[in-house]
Amino acid sequence: MSGISLLALDGSNTIGGSKLLLRYDDNQVLLDFGTSFKKFGTYYEEYLKPRSTGGLLDYVVMGVLPDAKNLYRKDLMHPELILKGPDVGRIDALLLSHAHADHFGDMGFLRLDVPFVTSAMSAIIVKAMADTGKSDMGKDHICPSPRQQNTLRGTPIVESCSVKEARELGVKGRDLVIIDSDIPEQFRQFWSFSPSIEMSDEPKRCKPHIPGAVRTGIDSIRLKSYPVDHSIKGACAYVIPTTQGNVVYTGDLRMHGINGHMTEDFIGGAKSPRPYVLITEGTRVGRVSDSSPDAEPTTEKQVLENATQLMSEMDGDFVIADFGPRNIERLEIFLDVARKHHRKMVVTTKDAYLLHAMHIVDPSVPIPGSDILIFDCPKGSESKYEEYMLQRVYPEATIKGGDIGRSPGDYLVSFSFFDLKHLVDIKPEKGHYLYSSCEAFGEEQEIDFIRMGAWLKKFYLKLYGFSFDQDGRPVFPKGPGSLHASGHATKVDLARIVRGIDPEVVVPVHTEHAEWFTDNFGGERKVVVPDSEGWIEL
To answer: pLDDT tens across 327-383, in order?
Structure first.
C-alpha cells in the first residue's frame, strides 16, 4: 500500500464528532472518535434517546454513528442492523487529541482491539469522566459493559449481561498507550480503581472492572506528539511520518491561552521537515462568536484581570463563577481570584473528583483542602464516586448550602446552570453570577440561558458575562472585556499556523466553513475538503 488517504467517517463540514481514518504506507490510524452532538441533537434529547435494546441499530439508522463495517464492538451489533458502508479493515490505533467528548465520546462503541494513544492527562480525564458519568451505552470508554443478543416476545434485542455472565466472558478494556510521560504507579492504581467496587458492601456483586493494558510507546506505528494550548489540559497534536512526507494533525488548539507558547513550539517542531499534509481544525473561521473572528481574542490573562476587578467590587456578597465543565485552567484562574479576595472556592463533587484524578498526573493541579471545599448536598441516591469523595477521601473539606448562605462573602461558588437548584439551600438575599463559559449555539441552548435568567432573577443575582436583549435572547460581549476566552484559534492565528507549518496539502476539519481555507490558501497550496462519501487520496 502506498500514498496517503483519508476516510472522514464524521467531522467533515461540521464542528465536533471528529472521526477521521488515516491510511498511509501499511498503517491505518483513527484521528479521534468523538460524539457529534449536532447529529445526536437533531433527533434526540434528554427524554428521547436511542433504545438501549437496539444496540447500534438506532445510532446507525439515524446517522448518529457512521455506517461502516468492522468499526464497532461485536457485542453491540443488532441482528437487524446491516452495515453497507466501507470496510475499514485493520486499525492500528486511535490517536486521541484531547478529552473533550466531541473528540473521544463515542470511543465506547469502537472495536476493543483498537488501542487508544494519548497524553497521560487526557487519559486520566477520560477515566474520571467515565467514573462520574452516566452508564449509557457507548460511554463505557475504559471498561466495557458487555452486551449479548437475545429475543423478547419474539423480537431480537441487545441486552446487558448479568454480573456472572460478564465475568464468564472475561472481557477486558481497551489498551492505553501513554506517549508523553512515564507511567507512575499511582496512575496505574487509579486506572484499575472502581468507585463502585471500592464503596460497595458486596464488591463481588459489582460489575467487573477489568481495564486493558497500560504502556508507553507503540511498536506498530511511528509518531510524535506535541502539547498544544486548548481549553482543557492534556491537549496534543500529532506528527506522523510516512514515506510520502509527514502528516500533521492539530486536534483543537489556540494561541491566546496561558500556554500559547506550547502551540508556538508545536509549529516550530511540525514545520521541519516540511510536512506533506496538515489536517487542521477551523472552528472559528466563519463564526461571529465570543469574539468576532476578525477581532482580537479575549485572552485568559484578560479573563483573570477582568474577574479580579469585578470581585473587588463584591466584598461580602454571594458570588457564583460558571466556567464550564473540565476547564480546569479557568478553575485555576478563579481560584487565584478567590485567594486574592480571601475567599474559599466551592466545587461540585464531580469537579472535585476530576481535580483528584488530574493531580495524579500533574501535582500542580489543586485538590480539595484549605482553600477548595466540596459542596455537600445529600441525594436520595448518591453515586459511589460521591460517597468515595465525601466520606473516604475529603470528609473534612466539605461545606453545606446553609453554611455558605450564613457567610456568603467567604466563598466563591463554582456552579453551572445545572447546579442552580442548590440556591434553594443557600438562600442568597442578593449576589452576583459571573458567566465565564461559551455562548449559546442553537435554540435549545438559548432556552437554557433564558431559564438561567429566571433563576438569577428569583434570587436577585446580578449577571456578568452576557446579557439579554429586548426580545429576551442572550447576547454575549465581544472583545477584551469578556469573561470568557475561546478554546479555538482565531482565523488570523489559523493563518499563522498554516503558513508557519507550511504543508503542501491542507485538509480542513472540525469546521462549518471549509471554503475559508480554499479562499485563503488555494492559490498557494493544495486544499482538500473531505466529505463522507468515501476515501479521498491526499
So the answer is: 899 999 999 999 999 999 999 999 999 999 999 999 999 999 989 999 999 888 889
Q: Report the topology of domain 1-221.
A: Metallo-beta-lactamase; Chain A (3.60.15)
- Gap between the Cα atoms of 33 and 389, Å rounded: 30
Q: How far apart are CA 137 and CA 444, in angstroms?
A: 24
pLDDT in tens, 236-278: 999 999 999 999 999 999 999 999 999 999 999 999 999 999 9
Domain 300-475 has CATH 3.40.50.10710: yes
Cα distance between residue 317 and residue 431, in whole Å: 5
Can you list the positions of beta strands (E) in 56-154?
Answer: 93-95, 116-118, 147-152
Q: Which residue spans of the chain are classified as CATH 3.60.15.10?
A: 222-294+486-538
Number of neighbouring beta carbons within 10 Å of residue 158: 22
Q: Which pLDDT score is estimated for 480?
A: 64
Q: Are 351 and 464 in contact (CB under 8 A)?
A: no
Question: What is the fold, at CATH topology level, of the domain defined by 222-294+486-538?
Answer: Metallo-beta-lactamase; Chain A (3.60.15)
Asked whether the CA dihedral 263, 264, 267, 272 is positive or negative, the reply is negative
